[in-house]
Each structure stands twice: as structure tokens, then as C-alpha cells.
Automatic annotation (TrEMBL), chains A, B:
This is Thiamine-monophosphate kinase. Reaction mechanism of ThiL seems to utilize a direct, inline transfer of the gamma-phosphate of ATP to TMP rather than a phosphorylated enzyme intermediate. It comes from the Bacteria. Mg(2+) 2 binds at residues 67, 96. Mg(2+) 5 binds at residue 243. The gene is thiL. Mg(2+) 1 binds at residues 66-67, 144. Keywords: ATP-binding, Kinase, Magnesium, Metal-binding, Nucleotide-binding, Thiamine biosynthesis, Transferase. Substrate binds at residues 74, 293, 335. It comes from Gordonia mangrovi. Gene3D superfamilies: PurM-like C-terminal domain, PurM-like, N-terminal domain. Pathway: Cofactor biosynthesis; thiamine diphosphate biosynthesis; thiamine diphosphate from thiamine phosphate: step 1/1. NCBIfam families: thiL.
């Protein structure tokens, strides 16, 4: 990471990163971060951003995960404003902490961007990163800022277990119940489908009608406090749904050495999703079963232990397959970065 | 981060990332990582890679820092092989942990690369990352793999303090001595100058003669155990030299509210550096004072407390300026990513 000296006057937001230079921009990022951070200084943070490294102490093990989002591949600036792009990068990284049963304590962030990126774009991405981290109860601990040909955001999130046992993905046991968080699994995929449809047809009509689904794609808002809640409830296995439900089921089944069976009509969906699927003429299960990036949690619990706020969608059996509505789904594929 | 299922047969190294797909390549990365990792499993690691997130417990605070390296900007594949590129990304991130007085416990890694990157290139970068992390006493805890237009490596390193107080950059006190680690400060800059000269003149002659300097540019090898050693010696301030000595002096002076004075001829240099400077007709101080990326450590110690292996190069006084050989250096600039 970079150390920064004193911050100077605010930088003109319309200037480019290349014009302003790395040192000046980092000073401005630090200044704006501190301004946004005054009311929020969790006791875990010993030393925050502005030194070579940060020091954090939650009195126990540290949970850590990293996730990268690339412009044009994982997000589009013509579909999302920079603040939302930054916030989304935090949510997708933080969901991995929740999936271990962890509480988010902090993030470190790398922003790579072309020199002709405006200062305003970088500051807005950073504001989104700060805001999302704060909403999760953590603090932005530091970062790096480098030049690149395209915008690449890497968010590494750390968390605390507060005495809980970490919940691995491979712990599902025959007899368990499978449950998910959230009230609309596949809402992000529905939003993406609406955006692609609007682009194809050249009209924003449906985007206005289903603005909630579009918002769910731009910035998923899973309740990540359900991760620690599941750990307290004794969850046997957990993961976040980042590549579509079926991909996570395949991963959990393989890692646990079990058979998973899900009833498609038990997967929580919203009325908006049903309406949108009808309007677009698509099968709702394209979104609920194979759609990705909601970052809701999938857990495996002993019968009677499913926590409040979770919806039971299936069961765990002896075996190694994954079934949805009585059909195996080994050949179904979720979203993949390098897809052909 | 991504969860992975069972690894399958080794993947053909000459195929591309796009052909093989993200899931298959991650399985292969996990497989090869485990193969390289059997002899090395530090007690800090509770859960390693292969789950949503890793869990690490060193029984105290966690030090964390992130650094990003971009192909064509921070490294060049025509100058460094993929393994060296991976190792270098670890060293530059890990140096920040050492600069706080920390011991490296683990890394998490994001590899972004174009779909036409060969599997072999990715595996070699990963092998370099693993090897460098292991050499530092840590373990690769997890990562992310995504598509991008160019190779972007982000390494986040975590470390432990083992009871030591973290050493900030802003703690230098009047009366302190300034000291650095290593025997050849600016060797990386010398190696870069030699590579640029060889490119300009179209001959590798000097690269062979000064292969040690070229190697120092490709992969700096600071002794990062000197970070915890400095902490045990009661260092008042510390940082790693990543942007050139003068930039770090400016940062330390500003953060500490002190005046720093360095004698250029006390900065450790190698005979190779003297010879190379003569052959290229450049001032040695272009490398020692303004050259960057050695990742050696700069510390401020009470008189009599400079640890073995460090070289005293100057003193700390009341004031706010930085002096080298009696001249202020506020206008000297080190390496900057977004430089015009």
C-alpha cells in the first residue's frame, strides 16, 4: 500500500487521474475518506489507512476473502454509476465473509483505472466503497491506486467470528435442511435480463416499471448479518450465491459428499420477478436456479435449526448428485467470467 | 472468492484461459497449490483456500496491506517470466507488512487476465506467488480469477505482530538515527536502467555483465525479517522503500513532523552499481536516492538502537524539511504510476 502525506486542497473532479497524479489523488482519497469516516471507527481497528499497512484486532481469528470486478465484464458504467460500482464490489467480497459466519470488520481496496478517468469517477467509486463498508459495520483500512487500461476493482474483506466456529461449504450432512436468505432469489439476474432487453429494444419502459429488479442487479443488498446468525444457529455448511444457486449446490454437494435436492417452487421470488418473467417471456427458473450474483446465503441446517429470516428450499441426502424438481442439474451452468 | 469442487486431471498448459474456463482453471490452480503446499502449513491458518473465505489466527492483531501490479506498467512479460512476476507481486505487498514490524502469515491473490492467456502463464504466476509466500513463512489463503483486457495482479498480505507494537511511518523523533536494510539501495533502479539501455541499443551485453542488478529489478529480495527485528529493537518509525528513498523520506518527515537529513555517501551500494553507473554515464544517486522499488526498509531508531544488518544513513532533527547532502529535496520526484 502507499503511505500518504498531508492532504491539500480538494482536487477538481473534472480533471483526469493522469493530470492530477497518483500522490495528489491518494491524498484526496484519504482526505475524503476521513471526512466520511468521522462517525465510524469500530474498536477492531488499531491503525487504519494512511500507513504502509493497517492493523486490526477483533480479539480472535481473522476471516479474509478477495474479489475482483472488471469494467465491461462484471459491471458497466453505462448501467451503473461509479458509486454503485464501488458499493457492489464491497458487497460481493463481504458476502464471502458472511458465508463463513463472519462479521465484516474492514476492507482494503485496489483501484486500477486508465489515466483519463476523471477524479470524480474515482472519488465516487471510493465513496461507494466507504459507504458500503460502513453499512456492513466495517472500516476501509487502506488501498492501492494504479494505472491500467481498464477499471479493475479488487476488494479484500476481513471479518471476525466473535467466538463462532467458521462455517465451511463442505459440512452438509444427510438429514439437513437447505435454506436461503432473501425474498427474491434471482432478482439480480432478472434485472440484468431487463437491462439487456432494454438495450436490444431501445426502450427504457420496463426498466421504469421494474426499477426494483434493476436496482437489485446494480447493487445486491443481501442481509449479511444472517451469516453470523446462521453460525450461532449451528449451520453445518454455508456459501454465498454468487454464481447462481445451481453452481453453489454443485459445489456444496461435491465438498460435502452429499446429495442435495431442491424444490424450485420453494425458492423465494417476488411478484415483480413473476411479472417481469411473464413480460419477457422467460422461465422464472432461469433466474432463480441458474441466475447469479444475488450474494444471498445458502445454508445447510439440522432439522429444526433453520434461523428466522431463512426459507427452506430442500433437503440433504446420502449420495453425490444435485436435484432440482426431480431432475439432475449437473449440466446446468451458471455465470462464468471466461464463458465462451 | 470462489469455492472449488474436486480437482480433475491436469490441464494442458498451452491451452488458453478462455478455452479452459474459469471453474476448470481454478480447480487446477487449487490442485497445483495443494501439491506445492504439502510441506508448509503454518499454525496460523485455520481454514485455507478452497472455501468462500480463509480463516487465520495468529493469536493477536492482524496487519493487512494490498498492492496491485499491472502488465506493461509495473512489469513486462518480455523482461520477466510469469513466475518472477508472481513472486514480485508478493514481495511488494509483503514489504508493507514488514514495514509495520509484522511477520507475513498469508496472502490472498486476485489474478485478472485476458482470455487468450495460456494456462501455463497463469499456473506459473501462481507458482511464483506460492513460492514467494512460502519463503516469507506464509501461506496462500485464497484468491479470485477473472477475465480482463490485461494482466492485473493484486496481492493482499496479512501478518502477525507477535506481541510487538506496530511501527507507524509517523513516529520519527528528533535525535533519532535513520537506517536502511540491504547492501545495495537502488539496485532495482540500476537493473531497470540497464534493461532500458539494452532495449535502446539493441544489445544484451551489459545485461549479462550486470545480471545481479537485472535480477534485483525483476525480483527484489529484501530481508523482510528485519521488519519484526526493528520492532523488537524499538524502532520509532518505519516504511518500505517502494517509491524511491526520497519519496519515503518526504512521507516520513511529513507524517512525523520532523526534519530528516541523509548523507548520500552512507547509502549502501554495491560495486556492481558503481560500475554500471560509470558504464551508463549516470549519477549513482539517480538510483540510490530517487530510484524506487527495492522494498528495503527505512527506519528511525533511538541512538544506539539500530539493529544489526541495518546501515545508518542520516539523522532526525527538529523541523519539517528533507535534506540529502545538504540540499533540500522537496522537488525531487520518485516513480509514479500515473506519471505523464
Amino acid at each position: 500500500m502507499v503511505s500518504v502525506g498531508d492532504a491539500r486542497d480538494p482536487v477538481d473532479r473534472s480533471r483526469t487521474v493522469g493530470e492530477v497524479g497518483e500522490r495528489r489523488l491518494i491524498a484526496e482519497l484519504t482526505r475524503s475518506s476521513r471526512a466520511l469516516d468521522v462517525t465510524h471507527r469500530p474498536p477492531d481497528v488499531v491503525i487504519g489507512s494512511g500507513d504502509d499497512a493497517a492493523v486490526i484486532d477483533s480479539g480472535g481469528p481473522t476471516v479474509i476473502s478477495t474479489d475482483t470486478a472488471v469494467a465491461g465484464r462484471h459491471f458497466r458504467f453505462d448501467w451503473s454509476d461509479p458509486r454503485t460500482v464501488g458499493a457492489r464490489a464491497v458487497v460481493q467480497s463481504a458476502a464471502d465473509i458472511a458465508a463463513m459466519g463472519g462479521r465484516v470488520t474492514g476492507t482494503v481496496v485496489s483501484i486500477a483505472c486508465p489515466p483519463d478517468t476523471t477524479v470524480g469517477t474515482v472519488l465516487d467509486m471510493n465513496a461507494g466503497i466507504l459507504d458500503a463498508t460502513h453499512r456492513l459495520g466495517g472500516r476501509v483500512l487502506g488501498g492501492d491506486l494504479v494505472g491500467a487500461d481498464e477499471v479493475v476493482l479488487t476488494v479484500t474483506t476481513v471479518g471476525a467470528l466473535d467466538g463462532a466456529t467458521p462455517i465451511v461449504v463442505g459440512g452438509a450432512r444427510p438429514g439437513d435442511l437447505l435454506a436461503v436468505t432473501g425474498s427474491a432469489l434471482g432478482a439480480s439476474a432478472a434485472g440484468l435480463a431487463l437491462l439487456l432487453d432494454a438495450q436490444r429494444r431501445g426502450t427504457d419502459e420496463l426498466l421504469t416499471e421494474f426499477s426494483g429488479l434493476v436496482a437489485a442487479h446494480r447493487l445486491p443488498a443481501p442481509d449479511l448479518t444472517q451469516g453470523p446468525a446462521a453460525a450461532r444457529a449451528g449451520a453445518h455448511a454455508m456459501t454465498d450465491i454468487s454464481d447462481g444457486l445451481v453452481e453453489e449446490l454443485i459445489t456444496m454437494a461435491a465438498a460435502s459428499g452429499v446429495q442435495l435436492s431442491v424444490a424450485g417452487d420453494r425458492i423465494p421470488v417476488s411478484d415483480d420477478m413473476r411479472s417481469a418473467a411473464e413480460r419477457l417471456g422467460v422461465d422464472l427458473r432461469d433466474w432463480t436456479v441458474t441466475g447469479g450474483e444475488d450474494h444471498e446465503l445458502l445454508g445447510s441446517f439440522a432439522a429444526g435449526s433453520v434461523p428466522p429470516g431463512w426459507t427452506t428450499i430442500g433437503e440433504v441426502h446420502d449420495g453425490t448428485a444435485v436435484w432440482v424438481d426431480g431432475r439432475t442439474v449437473q449440466d446446468l451452468q451458471g455465470w462464468q467470467s471466461f464463458g465462451s
